[in-house]
Amino acid sequence: MKIAKEFRWEMGHRLSFHDGKCINLHGHSYKALIEIEGDKDNNGMVLDYYELKKWVKPVIEELDHAFMVYEQDQQLVRILKEINSKHVIVDFESTAENISEYLLNRILQNKAEYNIRKVKVRVYETENTYAETEYVRFS
Ligand SMILES: [Zn+2]
After folding, report:
1. For residue range 64-92, what is the model confidence (pLDDT) as tens digits?
2. In a domain? residue 79
């Protein structure tokens, strides 16, 4: 059985390696679809949506209206600090692929032990582009 919940946030970023326009400072209305797979409990739930929100929301709050900046993009890190603008320093280029892995890892850190087999994170950078990663627990 599978359940899912959608989360949205606004975030600035740039890809410092990019040849095209993605090297410029810009932002997206990001959307993440979090899917949880497991067995229903006696109450008929895989996981309470409320619990799911408690896991994921704090991570999304950190990113919302922030600028995600690669630690090696040093000039930009310095400027963001100087102007005291909300930012999240990460050790990767902020591609949708990397952001989906980041979210998955952060979510798994928060998670309590439930009877969950699989957690999947799909990050939409635009309406029609996404990257997806998943964690499967073998037990
Ligand atoms: Zn972008």
Report:
1. 999 999 999 999 999 999 999 999 999 99
2. no
CATH of the domain at 24: 3.30.479.10
**Residues 115-127: pLDDT tens digits?**
788 999 999 999 9
Rg (CA), the chain: 16
Q: Encoding tokens for residue 110?
A: 């928060």
45 falls within a domain = yes
List the catalytic residue out of 18, 65, 71, 134.
65
**Residue 134: active-site member:** no
58 within a domain of the structure (yes/no): yes
**What residue numbers bound the domain in which 38 lies?**
2-64+94-136
Q: Is residue 132 in a domain?
A: yes
Q: Is residue 101 annotated as a catalytic residue, yes or no? A: no
